[in-house]
Design brief:
The structure is a homodimer of 437-residue chains.
Chain A (H helix, E strand, L loop, with lengths): L3 E2 L2 H4 L6 E14 L2 E8 L2 E8 L13 E10 L7 E10 L22 H6 L1 H4 L3 H23 L3 E2 L5 E2 L11 E4 L2 E5 L4 H11 L1 E9 L12 E10 L4 H22 L1 H6 L12 E3 H9 L18 H15 L3 E5 L21 E6 L2 E9 L3 H10 L8 H9 L4 E7 H9 L20
Parallel strand pairs in A: 1-2, 4-6, 7-11, 13-14
Antiparallel strand pairs in A: 2-3, 2-5, 3-4, 5-6, 8-10, 9-10, 11-12, 12-17, 14-15, 15-16, 16-17
Helix pairs in contact in A: 4-6, 4-12, 5-11
């Protein structure tokens, strides 16, 4: 019998035809002489019905890779509408010797607890709901690049091995580099700025590293940073406008391309024409009227928001504007990196964060583009310009007013899907206790 | 006067209109009372003509960032066809104090020599021909992802901090990781394979690290690897067929999107229906008839090709088939990684390289997917399975026949553009002597 090799999705349109399907055995149920299998391939799952004994059927184990030959038939009372009547089963590997955790469709992987979820990552990632997280994450990265390419940004790949930190040397991982010390880049910041002098608008999607010891639900020591930087801006408002359009594009893209996955996680995609924006001082004034334990990290002049403050502010704008996002602008210059553009006449800076459902998912701002002012800023922080010689080059040749921002891919994924821990949004997360798998 | 802010490209269609343009001063020529500027923005260059003295004009320096206001006018005898008659010049930064190297349009940056080219990277990258290299490179990465998304591959982001090397521990960079030793990943190999069990078809674009001491025109210690891995293959032929279609797609994409940049480098895009394929033994037989110094690295049974052999083989196929590409297949198992699928009954493996204009740009192959055989392979190489526990997990649960390949992004760029040194194809290259900029 000739049978065409098709995917589960293709099989749906082939009732009556003899086909071959290839995938993993996701479920096995034996009812007397009849065996029901659920076969999973990259496009979905399908029921396979075996009457009587078919070779290989009795030894078959969960997750085994198989080829299934049979006829596509209509199936009563099923969402998928079809099933495969098995004619031949071919196993493609040895049966598993028993799975350490159950990954069936109904099972919520979070209920395993984080250690099991991550220790058995090669298995738990096969669960339908977990797969959906990373399908959505891949789509976010695709939409990010697609939007920026349309806006005439150029993609760059900068080195992750650097000789100087972007923030003056704290929280860097050290690499042995042919007898020298190198560091893992905390951000492509300096390279993005150098490349603004080259392409005017650039973006990068790549890993960044923070050697911070904290062990929280929102920090990773290695994460994927979605960065863009653009020249010839008037102020940070141009960046905020660009990110607003970018997020609209990403969310629209997800609705079009990931409807099944969004539904699985019951994701409510934010819809908005604009994102509210408040200064840090205004944010503080709003929070001061709310009953909170600790809205800001400092008494008097607010320097930053506490996690509780971030959550309360997003809840406030959800109530008032119907959107769980808010830009917080004008952070004091003293709490931002040396390259942040100060606001003239104040102690503030042209920088901002974006909070989404209670968590900072973006940090950005306008940068200092005048060589002499950059030197002053470094010196006021006690940084030695000699250590930043390569970075400073581009400012000596001439740089336009510019700025940019970084979105944490895992944070955006976590907040969008309502995941409890950021580790659930990283395929193979790294933290102080975890270097594998 | 109201003037719309436009790009150089947009200005071409606005003859007679008052516009603002923003960019860098690429050239200045003073002819009596008239000053001619070349303004460069992200879309191209345009001549700006200033009659008499305009404020800021006398101090203006090369590469300074400026806003130019003026009227778009037709220009006699110019390729661009238009120029800007200056009304107002606004400088956006301090003038440069003199450029260490000249980066004018006519200047070939290679002629500076590699140290100057790389030491002044923030400046030399602004040269038109150098920019074109990285426009093409960005387009290659975009086309790679676009093609694989269409073929139902899912993009992944795997960790670059690993506890075990993929090849048994040689040539790894060491990272201090919270009191432990970690390594920089040489390849996302193990993660790609794990993810085949999850998504069946996956790809990744990311940095990889090789702590090799050699200092050659074709090696970098950090490079961008374009990887894909796919399940349910019959043999390595499926991978070769997929790469053939992928390269056709990439080359077609470049022709459509980078015609100006390709022309600048006088790139001849390969056109082919198929790419020739020979076994290593056949390659050796072809080379043995050619007058070469050193066609293979070994006497007797060939284990690999020398650089000279790779070049001669590509030249041979350019003469015979009119295509400077060739797949070389069936490398001995002993010279490939332990996870390479052995060919049954021989000492060969289901692995291959792709040579392009004399250089290996891809290495790939079918992998062992049976748990027990993988253990045997490890043991025969003296590797301890305990060190690969996380990797081995996925094979215990059930893995389909699978394989994949990796394309070096910088190598593909170098070969396509005919660059002399791979460092020219990396924005910020890393080698034994270079950790900056």
């Amino acid at each position: 019998m000739n049978s065409e090799t098709v995917t589960v999705e293709e099989a749906r349109h082939l009732v009556g035809r003899a086909v071959s399907l290839r995938g993993h055995v996701q479920a096995i149920r034996r009812l007397g002489a009849i065996t029901f299998l659920v076969l999973r391939d990259r496009t979905g799952t399908i029921q396979v019905v075996a009457n009587g004994s078919s070779e290989g059927l009795s030894d078959l184990a969960l997750e085994q890779a198989v080829t299934v030959r049979g006829t596509v038939a209509k199936r009563q009372g099923s969402a998928e509408g079809i099933e495969i009547q098995l004619e031949k089963l071919i196993t493609l590997c040895e049966p598993s010797t028993g799975l350490p955790v159950e990954i069936s469709r109904e099972k919520r992987m979070e209920s395993l607890g984080l250690p099991a979820l991550l220790n058995y990552r090669p298995l738990t990632l096969r669960n339908e709901r977990v797969r959906a997280i990373f399908k959505i994450q891949a789509a976010i990265a695709t939409a990010f690049r697609e939007f920026l390419n349309r806006e005439h940004f150029t993609e760059i790949h900068s080195s992750k091995l650097v000789s100087t930190g972007t923030e003056g040397g704290a929280n860097l991982f050290t690499v042995e580099y042919f007898g020298q010390k190198a560091f893992l880049a905390q951000s492509p910041q300096f390279y993005r700025q150098i490349m603004v002098g080259v392409f005017e608008r650039v973006f990068e999607v790549g890993p960044v590293y923070r050697a911070e010891e904290h062990n929280t639900i929102r920090h990773l020591n290695e994460y994927i940073s979605l960065d863009f930087e653009m020249g010839f801006i008037e102020s940070e408002s141009d960046l905020i406008a660009m990110e607003t359009k970018l997020l609209q594009y990403i969310f629209e893209y997800l609705k079009e391309n990931c409807s099944k996955e969004l539904e699985l996680h019951q994701v409510k995609i934010p819809v908005f024409a604009e994102i509210p924006s408040v200064t840090l001082t205004e944010a503080h004034a709003i929070l001061s009227k709310l009953p909170l334990q600790s809205a800001t990290k400092t008494q008097g002049e607010p320097e930053d928001l506490t996690p509780e403050g971030e959550r309360a502010l997003c809840e406030y704008f959800a109530r008032v504007d119907g959107i769980e996002m808010v830009f917080v602008t004008h952070y004091p210059w003293s709490v931002r990196p040396f390259y942040a553009m100060p606001e003239s006449g104040t102690n503030k800076s042209h920088s901002f964060d974006l909070l989404f459902r209670g968590l900072e998912v973006t940090t950005g701002g306008q940068r200092i583009h005048i060589h002499s002012r950059l030197l002053e800023a470094m010196e006021s922080r006690g940084l030695r310009p000699e250590s930043f010689e390569d970075y400073l080059q581009c400012f000596r040749y001439g740089m336009p007013p510019h700025g940019g921002l970084a979105i944490g891919l895992e944070r955006l994924t976590k907040q969008l899907l309502g995941l409890a821990n950021i580790r659930e949004a990283s395929l193979f997360p790294r933290d102080g206790n975890r270097l594998s798998p």
